Amino acid sequence: MKILVVNCGSSSIKYQLFDMTDESVLAKGLVERIGIEGSVLTHQPAGKPKAVINADIKNHSIGIKLVLEALTDANHGVIGSMKEIAAVGHRVVHAGEKFADSVLITPEVMKALDECIEMAPLHNPPNILGIEACAELIPGVPQTGVFDTAFHQTMPKHAFLYGLPYEAYEKYGLRRYGFHGTSHKYVSQRAAELMDEQLTNLRIITCHLGNGASIAAVKFGKSVDTSMGFTPLEGLVMGTRCGEIDPAIIPYLMKKEGMTPDQIDSYLNKKSGVLGVSGVSSDFRDIEEAAVAGNDRAQLALEMFAYKVRKYIGSYAAAMGGADAIVFTAGLGENSASMRDKICNGLEFLGTRIDPVKNNVRGKAQEISVDGAKVKIFIIPTNEELVIARDTKTICAGLV
Q: What is its main location (predicted)?
């Protein structure tokens, strides 16, 4: 069974084509700058040279069409025709409380996704456009939705509710939803495999650290808490997001600066975080370089980030009654040895410590804690696309 995995952003489409007989990637690529001048498709077939296709990509439908043409091209294609694609799995950011697992796309599901646009206005619309484009271009091929929020639907009520009048939850769905669920799910499963243990016996703290960052408490295979909330703004200091702040700051700033709701939203989501603190960049690599060069604000941004992560790890160990493993994943988590060291320096009370020699690695799945540590520390590269492909195979196996 060959499964196409699609992840549509507002102006981009990431994709991978899997052969699920051995879970190998036949091709992957990226469509960039959709609807913007200079749009391009970069297509990487397995075992063949990369193909770069410059085109006027006005919308997601045209982008998906170019992806399908690249996959079947005589020179850089990997399948004979689109008939070889048995199913399509889509990453969808927000499903609210509507779905606790991946689902087959139906008209009822599409209606539910549309109803969630208000909670994810930047993400759900392009996700929906990708589904509609595939339905148009490869009609009859089953499609699935795999949700960022689904993994966290196991959180207990006392963990996901805010201290607001209960009617706010009943009327508007104001609660913690959490994100990066597919990543947290995958790396917790891989950690159990690396430990040669059953996931249902383990308490794992998963740290998805990138420009967007979140931490999850995974107890016996289920998410019981996570740092992102009603939106991805809550939780850690991130690339451009402020993370958790005193809510009273918002009306205070609006009055002082004369900001509208849209302006304060942009201020908190796009101008804050390590970008706002450092004044350098939202990219941790740039900030680390600036810190080494003696930039005090860059150093402060790094210390703030590490401190917040360490606090969440400690609180989630308390929430689960202990921890068996800590996992670092995503761009920063997988590649920055110095940040992992900063975060873990102070976690010795949990019975763990990083081995500096083991920690000197990038993007490789391995344990990096000292021998005999009570709490194991791992680097595990995330693979959200594989989770989507696996879920899609399970759902569609009896349909194709």
A: cytoplasm
Q: What is the largest distance, in Å, between two alpha-carbon atoms of the chain?
A: 62
Residues 223 and 370 grouped into a single domain: yes
How open is the CA angle 34-40-44, to the nearest 5 degrees?
A: 120
- Name the domain count of the chain: 2
In a domain, 98, yes or no: yes
**pTM greater than 0.85 (yes/no):** yes
Cβ(223)–Cβ(152) below 8 Å:
yes
Is 331 annotated in a binding site? The answer is: yes
- Three-class DSSP category at 377: strand
* Residue 252 maps to a domain: yes
* Structural domain contains residue 397: no
Catalytic site includes residue 324: no
| 358 inside domain | yes
Q: Is 80 marked as binding a ligand?
A: no
Other beta carbons within 10 Å of 374 = 12
Per-residue pLDDT 10s for the chain (400 aa) are: 999 999 888 788 899 999 999 999 999 999 988 888 899 999 999 999 999 999 999 988 899 999 999 999 999 999 999 999 999 999 988 887 888 889 999 999 999 888 887 777 777 888 898 999 999 999 999 999 999 899 999 999 999 999 999 999 999 999 999 999 999 999 999 999 999 999 999 999 999 999 889 999 999 999 999 999 998 899 999 999 999 999 999 999 999 999 999 999 999 998 999 999 999 999 899 999 999 999 999 999 999 999 999 999 999 999 999 999 999 999 899 999 999 999 999 999 999 999 999 999 998 999 999 999 999 999 999 998 999 999 999 999 877 6
Any known ligand binding at 225?
no
Name the active-site residue from 148, 225, 324, 391: 148
Residue 184 annotated as part of some ligand binding site: no
Does 288 carry a binding-site annotation?
no
Domain identity same for 44 and 112: yes
CATH value at residue 330: 3.30.420.40
Host domain of residue 329: 198-384
Cβ atoms of 370 and 355 closer than 8 Å? yes
Q: Which helix (H) or strand (E) holds 317?
A: helix 296-320
Same domain, 141 and 237: no
Residue 363 annotated as binding? no
